[in-house]
Known about the structure:
Helix content is 23%, strand content 28%. The chain has helices at residues 13-22, 118-124, 139-156, 168-177, and strands at residues 4-6, 26-30, 41-42, 56-61, 69-74, 85-90, 95-98, 102-103, 107-109, 111-115, 159-161, 164-166, 181-183, 186-188.
Amino acid sequence: MPNLDFYAMDDDWPAVLGAVFGLGLFRVFESDSEPDRELREFQALAEVPDGRPGRSLALFAAGSGPEPLAKRIDFLPGVRPDATFRYCCEGWGLIRLHHGTAAGTRELRRSRTNHNSEKRAAAWSATLPRLGDPADWDWKAVTSASGRLNRTIRRLAVSKIGARPVLPHAAAFIAQAGLRYEYGIGLHATPA
């Protein structure tokens, strides 16, 4: 169970993040730092900034593998006039928690959890040697922690669309906006 797609709105995120910290399984990092800032690790729910939609967190199942890496990405001159670099959090066994977005009242994009499998990491290891040997990860621990998080998110849901859990504030938004058509990466007000 490496991934879970689900629908959540901004007001659902405190419950999702509360579950992340409440499980006591994870160290929580931002997937990408703010421009010109170091990568942050969050120790508690109150430290996580109000998430802008579209943002991701990197969850490290404690003891499952090597420390996450902070890769510096330098911006090309002129690309960002107010910044020169950012960092991203990397590691074969990190679990990503992506915060989906609403596009006005016409679309709600899915949120999701996801992580590599041992097989996928091994297949890509020659391409990304900076991440080390995927065999250094306890893939059973990664999958177990991911599965527990996914089950917890499912329990927060008040309904489902197909196999995708819908959290309470997302359900209210979907009903109010009249979103009925699922295609692409989300739920829409009009058919494709």
